[in-house]
Hints:
Layout: E1 3-13, E2 33-42, E3 45-51, H1 52-63, E4 70-73, E5 78-81, E6 83-85, H2 98-104, H3 109-114, H4 119-128, H5 131-147, E7 150-156, H6 163-179, E8 183-191, H7 202-219, E9 225-229, H8 237-249, E10 253-258, H9 266-273, E11 277-280, H10 286-295, E12 298-301, H11 303-308, H12 316-322, E13 326-328, H13 342-353, H14 357-364, H15 366-371, E14 389-392, H16 399-402, E15 409-414, E16 417-421, E17 424-425
Helix pairs in contact: 5-6, 6-7, 7-8, 9-10, 13-14
The structure holds N-(iminomethyl)-L-glutamic acid and zinc ion.
Amino acid sequence: MNRWLIHGASQLLTLKGASDRPKRGKQMSELGIIEQGSLAIENERIFAVGSREEMEREVRLRWGGLDGVRVLNAAGKVVMPGLIDPHTHLVFAGTREYELEMRLNGRTYLEILQAGGGILATTAMTRSATEEELTEQTLKRLDRFLLHGVTTVEAKSGYGLTLQDELKQLRVARRVHEEHPVDVVSTFMGAHAIPEEYKHDPEEYVRLVIGEMIPRVAGEGLAEFCDVFCEKGVFSLEQTERILTEAKRWGLVPKLHADELEPMGGAELAARIGAISADHLLKVSDRGIRAMAEAGVVAVLLPGTAFFLMAPCARARDMLEAGVPVALSTDFNPGSSPTVSLPVIMNLACLNMKMTPAEVIAAATINSAHAIGKAGEIGSLEPGKQADILILDAPNYAHLSYHYGVNLTDSVFKKGELVVQGGRRCDLPI
Ligand SMILES: N=CN[C@@H](CCC(=O)O)C(=O)O
Ligand SMILES: [Zn+2]
C-alpha cells in the first residue's frame, strides 16, 4: 500500500469545485486555498485534503496512525495540482534554430513555411527518423517537462504528413505515455501543413486526411482528438470544417489552431462544430469570442508563441470578461515555441496578457485539464482524483509568476509516486 501524508504547506491550492465545468470570469481567481494545508495519498489517488488539524484527525481515523505512512513536510512551500500542458507538438526530429535569425532579418513565419521550411523542414527530418530515435528524443523532452512541474501533456502529430509517418508519430506518443511518468494525451494533426508533394493539389491531400488517415488513426485508437491548422495559405475554413466533421464521425474530438496569424473565423467554427478547444486566437474577432463563450469552448492561449514570433498577444482580458474559459500552454514545438517551461508561459500571460497570478494557475491546471477532457481525473486536489501534485519551493503562489525564468519546482508526485524531489528525478535507478 502506497501511503503519503504531505503536511503543513504554507498554501495548498485545491482548485476544487470545477471538475464538471471549466472556470470562467471571477471563478478563475478562486484557487480554493487552504493555509497550513495537508493532503493524504493512498496508492494512485488523493484520499483526503484539509487543514493540518483536520488531516491529523482523518489519518488517525482512517489509517489508525502514521505507521507505514511516508510523511513529506511541506512547511514554507506551496502544494498545488501538477501543471497540465494542453497543446504541444512533442514528437519531432531535429531543430530549427537557424529560422530565428531568418525571422530577425524580416522573413515571416508563413513565408518560411511557404518556401518549404518551417513545419515542412521538421517534417523532412521527422520522416527520416526511426521510431527508436523519436522515442529517445521525446523521452528526454518529457523529463524536462516533468522537472518544470508538468504531469500531463497533450501531443499532436503533424510532422509526418503521410499515413505511415503520422502513425509513426502517434505510436511514439503512445509508447512514451506508457514508459514515462508524464501522461501523454494524443491528437491527430495530419492537417498541420500541405506537404510538398501535394503543393499543386492541396485538395487531394485533404482527401487523404479524410479518407485514409482519420479512419486508420481512429480505428487503431491512436488519438482522442483531431486538430487542424486553419490558416490563410494552409487549410481553409471550409477544408477545416470538412476534416473535423469527418473526425467527429470517427469519435475524434475536434480542436483547432484558430485565428493565429489572420482572422479566419476559426473561433466561430470551433463553437459551431463543438470543438473542445480553440487555440492561439491572436486575431480572434469579437463575434468569435462571443461564440466561444456561448458554446463553452476553452480558449487555449499560447503567449510564448506570440513572444517567440514577436507578435501581439491574444486578447485574454476580453475573453475572460466575455466568460470564455481560458487555459494556457507552451505550444512546445521546434519552430514557434521551443520551450518546455509552462511557468515561463504563465509569467508571460501575466505580463503580456494582463492575467493575474491566480488566473494563470487556474488556466494551467483545471482549465487545461478541461481543454483535453480530463478534468474528472486531474487538474485539482480533491479526494478521488489522481495524485498528480506539484510542490513549489515558494511560500505563496504569486512567486510562480514573479521569479520569471526560475524553476521553482521542488517536488512532483505522479499517480501517487514521488518522481521529483529537490528539483531532481528521484525515481530512477542510480
Ligand atoms: N501554427 C502551427 N503549428 C505550430 C508550429 C509548428 C512549427 O512551426 O513547427 C504552432 O502551433 O505554433
Ligand atoms: Zn500548435
